[in-house]
Amino acid sequence: ASCVQYRLVVRDVNTLQIRQLYTCLDQIQYIEWSSDSLFVLCAMYKRGVVQVWSLEQPDWHCKIDEGSAGLVASCWSPDGRHILNTTEFHLRITVWSLCTKSVSYIKYPKACQQGIAFTKDGRYMAVAERRDCKDFISIFVCSDWQLLRHFDTETQDLFGIEWAPNGCVLAAWDTCLEYKILLYSLDGRLLSTFRAYEWSLGIKSIAWSASSQFLAIGSYDEKVRILNHVTWKKITEFEHPATIANTKTIVYKEVEKSPSVETERLSFPPTRALASSLFSTQSKYDISQVPVSLQYIKPVADRANPKMGIGMLAFSPDNCFLATKNDNIPNAVWIWDIQKLKLFVVLEQLCTIQCFQWDPRQPRLAVCTGNSKVYLWSPAGCVSVQVPVEGDFQIVSLSWHSSGDSVVLLSKDNFCVCYLEREEV
């Protein structure tokens, strides 16, 4: 699904043919599929309205109007039959049922980076709350929206919450002004508190491994710390230095090369295909000899949200690798071997890393850097792929299909789908 101002366009993944076309009341600012792909919601925050469309029954549609309360966020519940709307100033969350048309209210949700978290099985929801100048977490049962647990957290300014994939542990972390991460059980018991240091900027990002055995914490001191699920103590920490000295680490360096064109083919004026190949630069990877010095940017110390520390990290679906990005070294992706707890590969790009995401089915990482190329890494090697589109197509984000057979590449105004051929076994 994609939106073009007022219109929602639903296409077939394999052929990109238009399956449905819907017209909304106003310019669409957010879209989201239900978990079973039968419905899609379109949020129009300026109007305070959400419209829901059905793929099975194109004539049916639903309109939810929050009225004077306004709207700042909207999302599906895991069952795909309830919509959670957050009103302006985070006064409340309204839970709308598509089946019974009933409405439930959750008061005092906190305005933070990640204030709502569902367990992977869809049974429970945790909500970060702020009341009487204190932080709380409420856990609800998603089947009937009944409150299961309500407890206060030992945080100064709760920044985010996230469930472990097995749904047994909830991680809650404090604002970057204080390094503190708290781990709670489903019944609200505090299992452990982890603090790496004090009096300096703290946690910037976290990621659970798919098996729930490891919790990776990225911080402003340019390190990733790995906690284990038995004692919740640190088992190792990964540093991100500007010089790679270990001879066992493979460093792939992106290099550009201008395509060679035979002079016999040159014509004036040049054909469109020839012109695009003349002015487009191709890139490939070379393996660098260690030691390698990476481009290091010293952050501006007197500004808010300094570009420093571990801004992105993600585990591979098989728990074997962890990909990280240190914002001080913006052109590099670090890939760590989790079984050996060592640095395995560094990808040194020519441009700043915009986004990376693991293939959901195998250890294959897709990276984009704001140009018209997509980069793929797997243990077998690394490749740079030029997207064959006319004009300026700068990839700023990407998203894998759940099968791992294709990946959507997004620029500011356009998108394209990259299809990957499966290897025959």
Describe the structure.
There is one protein chain. With 425 residues, the chain is mainly β. Among the domains are: 1-107, 7 Propeller (Methylamine Dehydrogenase, Chain H); 253-260 and 268-424, YVTN repeat-like/Quinoprotein amine dehydrogenase (Methylamine Dehydrogenase, Chain H). The chain contains 1 helix and 38 strands. It has one helix at 272-279, and strands spanning 2-4, 7-11, 18-23, 30-33, 39-44, 49-54, 61-65, 73-76, 82-86, 92-97, 103-107, 116-118, 124-131, 134-141, 146-152, 158-163, 169-174, 181-185, 190-194, 203-208, 214-219, 223-228, 234-239, 243-244, 250-257, 282-287, 292-293, 310-315, 321-326, 332-337, 342-348, 355-358, 365-368, 373-378, 381-386, 397-400, 406-410, 415-419. The protein is globular.
Protein structure class: mainly beta
Per the CATH scheme, the topology name of the domain at 253-260 and 268-424 is Methylamine Dehydrogenase, Chain H
Distance between the termini: 32 Å
The CATH superfamily of the domain at 253-260 and 268-424 is identified as YVTN repeat-like/Quinoprotein amine dehydrogenase
| Overall CATH architecture of the domain at 253-260 and 268-424 | 7 Propeller
Main sheet, how many strands, which sense, barrel? 6 strands, mixed
Overall mean pLDDT stands at 93
**Residues in β-strands, percent:** over 45%
Shape: globular
Widest β-sheet, arrangement of strands: 26-25-31-30-29-28
Q: How many individual β-strands?
A: 38
Helix content: under 10%
Tally of DSSP helical segments: 1
Task: Report the top-level CATH class of the domain at 253-260 and 268-424.
Answer: Mainly Beta
| CA radius of gyration | 24 Å
